[in-house]
Design a protein that fits this description.
The complex is a heterodimer. Chain A is of the alpha/beta class. Chain A has nine helices and ten strands. The two termini of chain A are about 35 Å apart. Chain B has a domain at about 25-165: MetI-like (MetI-like fold). Chain B has helices at about 1-15, 20-60, 70-90, 90-105, 110-135, 140-150, 150-180, 195-205, 210-235. Chain B starts with a helix and ends in a 5-residue tail after the last helix. The chains are: A alpha/beta, B mainly alpha. Chains A and B meet through helix 2, strand 6 and helix 3 of A and helix 6 and helix 7 of B.
Chain lengths: ~250, ~240
């Protein structure tokens, strides 16, 4: 394991309903600091399950995940501490509807990182300014558009100063005209050197931003490569077929 | 007409003024309110605990690692289920009599007996109300909390419960109103609540109309008052959904 490896996955398997459904069937992956990894694949190929396994929202059936050299799949380790280092953005935003935007963002830093209220709010406001939503700090999630909600969700994850950001189809639930504003924020994050793992159907984003594209098929990584290799010179027959359908 | 009003007036005096009989009503009302409020609190505490055990079991049991935690949860869930089945499967009057004649046979503290009986009874219904509320909160909310690094309990406390509480408030208010009226059977075991107070006046004066209507009126006014109160609270909680 080289020094700048941040996540290492060994032989990850996830079986559902007593082993009959193999959502993940032996996945190995190494993610380096600052890398942007985009995972693509047909629906049901296990890409979301894989992403959700990285912060143990899905408990793997077999295999190991190392975050900064620590085996987080070991039950001895406190997963809550490790999750603080991995921000997650969901398809359905999952903002807390009973809290204002500011409270949504500051809840975890105040309760978990023991930041005082003033610092947490200042930090939240400067993050909100970066995504152009500083004026909505006191609104409730239901008052925002989908694109705004997703940008807030990104800010909420960033407020914990994570080492890695996980994106689970962040633009799939958005109206088409709102996709751009969210991708823009993600692009900026990537340029600032954030380590990102993104599950998406936005091939344009993958081409432009990804350092490495992973094509998953039936719970396995079928092909890995730079965006050029994957999109211009696909080798795996299923990848060719998949690209033929989505491009 | 005038004659009718005069009879009404003399009935009223006979029922409530003579020998300070109004005290049966006010003392009964105090007892009813005491019993209702205390059993409500007890019901909410019991209900919350049972709902947490049951929903934790429903949500997590299948994915939990084998060990002491899983075993304790299974045992807890088993006893909660027995509690719910027995309490919801038997009439509250019978439970009250069991409390009075068997469990507290040596005690004469009527309020204590009534609160125990109605609190334990109400807890079973409140538990199912809370559980439905907890289960109705989208699992994504729970996952969002966990993904930020909150543990199971903190996620429940900060994220799931506040939303669950909001969605169950109407059902909870309804349970409170049911409880308020249900306590009227306390007279069965010689507890002097509002209904019993009216009944004592009826026995002493042989007047039925005045005391019973007065008692009914008081219950009605209380229910209307609490309904209004809950409506105000609901409107305030709905603020975030505008």
């Amino acid at each position: 394991m080289s020094d700048n490896t941040i996540i290492k996955v060994n032989g990850l398997k996830k079986h559902f309903t007593g082993g009959t459904v193999k959502a993940l069937d032996g996945v190995d992956l190494e993610i380096k600091k600052g890398e942007v990894i985009v995972i693509i694949g047909p629906s049901g190929c296990g890409k979301s399950t894989f992403l959700r396994s990285l912060n143990l929202l899905e408990t793997p059936t077999e295999g190991e995940i190392f975050l900064e050299g620590v085996n987080i799949t070991d039950p001895q380790n406190n997963i809550n501490l490790h999750r603080q280092k991995m921000g997650m953005v969901f398809q359905q935003f999952n903002l807390f509807p009973h809290m204002t935007i500011l409270k949504n963002i500051t809840l975890a830093p105040i309760k978990l990182l023991r930041q005082n209220k003033k610092d947490a709010e200042e930090n939240a406001l400067s993050l909100l300014k970066r995504v152009g939503l500083a004026d909505r700090a006191n609104a409730y999630p239901s008052q925002l558009s989908g694109g705004q909600k997703q940008r807030i969700a990104i800010v909420r994850a960033l407020a914990m100063n994570p080492e890695v950001m996980l994106f689970d189809e962040p633009t799939s639930a958005l109206d088409p005209e709102m996709v751009g504003e969210v991708l823009e924020v993600m692009k900026e994050l990537a340029q600032e050197g954030m380590t990102m793992v993104v599950v998406t159907h936005e091939m344009g984003f993958a081409k432009e931003v990804a350092d490495k594209v992973i094509f998953m098929e039936e719970g396995k990584i079928a092909e890995t490569g730079s965006p050029e290799e994957i999109f211009q010179n696909p080798k795996h027959p299923r990848l060719k077929e998949f690209l033929g359908k989505v491009l | 007409m005038a004659e009718f009003l005069l009879t009404l007036k003399s009935d009223f005096i006979k029922c409530f003024i003579t020998k300070n009989r109004w005290k049966f009503i006010t003392e009964g009302l105090t007892a009813t309110l005491k019993i209702t409020l205390l059993s409500c609190i007890m019901g909410i505490v019991i209900g919350l605990v049972v709902a947490i055990v049951r929903s934790t079991y429903d949500k997590n049991y299948s994915q939990m690692r084998r060990g002491l935690g899983k075993f304790l949860l299974a045992v807890g869930n088993f006893f909660c289920n027995i509690y719910l089945t027995v309490i919801r499967g038997t009439p509250v009057v019978v439970q009250l009599m069991i409390m009075y004649y068997i469990i507290f046979a040596t005690s004469s503290n009527g309020i204590l007996i009534a609160v125990s009986a109605f609190g334990i009874n109400s807890g079973a219904y409140v538990a199912e109300i809370f559980r439905s509320g907890i289960m109705s909160v989208d699992n994504g909310q729970f996952e969002a909390g966990r993904s930020l690094g909150f543990g199971y309990i903190s996620t429940m406390l900060y994220i799931v419960f506040p939303q669950a509480f909001k969605s169950v408030l109407p059902a909870l208010a309804n349970e409170f109103i049911v409880l308020l009226k249900e306590t009227s059977v306390a007279g069965y075991v010689a507890i002097k609540d509002l209904t019993k107070g009216g009944d004592i006046i009826r026995g002493a004066t042989y007047e039925t109309f005045m005391p019973l209507l007065a008692v009914a009126g008081i219950y009605l006014v209380m229910v209307i008052f609490f309904t209004k109160l809950v409506n105000i609270l609901e409107r305030r909680l709905r603020k975030s959904e505008r």
